[in-house]
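Below is one protein, fold included:
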Amino acid sequence: MVFTHVLTSFLYAIEPVYNVLNTSLNEDYFRLLMLIIVVVLVAILAERLEKIRKLNELNQKLKIQTDKLEDANQELEAFAYSVSHDLRVPLRAIDGFSRILVEDYEDKLDEEGIRLLNIVRDNTAKMGHLIDDILLLSRASRQEMKMNELDMAALAKSVYDEFQTDVEGRNIEFTVGNLPNAYGDRAMLGQVFQNLIGNAIKFTRNKNPAIIEVGGKKEGKEFVYYVQDNGAGFDMKYINKLFGLFQRLHSPEEFEGTGVGLSIVQRVIRRHGGHVWGEGKVDGGATIFFTLPKDKPKKKK
């Protein structure tokens, strides 16, 4: 009824054109025009329906591929967690027996033998740190998030206090600005600050004084936080490697580490709906930024 009314109104609206052409809008013209318009509309509708059908097929295929990728990622993370956990026992055995050899059989070993055993113990410790970091990375993806409003300034200060043994005897100027509160998982965001502040402490080792600043501000619909230092920095041409797993921009001889810390930071921040990036200059310090949504997250039903 509505469609017929619209067509009728349209046809009588163009009646003056027929009058100019000295042609009457009789019933035959009316039916012919209606037929033409209906055919055109049906063709347009059929084309649109075909596009919708193809789009639905593509969405379905994309959903299947996304589900497969998600399953593969979960299996990979479960495998990494299992392997990392199972490696702890043999590593402890290697370290324990090496220590026994050094302590109880020192008089039967020459200097080279003791040196080699200490190398074994050092590398075992490095492997232990790597396993710990892999487990942390796995937990950052699998751990259930408990969202609460957090005092970000207090969290940053408490994390720095945990490094007192590392900063003892050093001249470090550590400042925390007026950080806006944010919603997040306290343990996971504490891990973010632990990695970022820990890196700043490590990479300013050769600076006197070392300057480390934690700051933040509101920008639009999100909060932007940063940890800045005046340490070793990095070359911006390698920025694409900064958050890569097992990627290191400094040699192990310069600074210890596993290359996992910033990957954990990135994964945690992404789970909170934010993003992370960095800026740096060789021997000119580095700044790592991350964002968190300003609005309180909605509870999932």
Q: What stands out?
A: The radius of gyration is 33 Å. The mean pLDDT is 81.
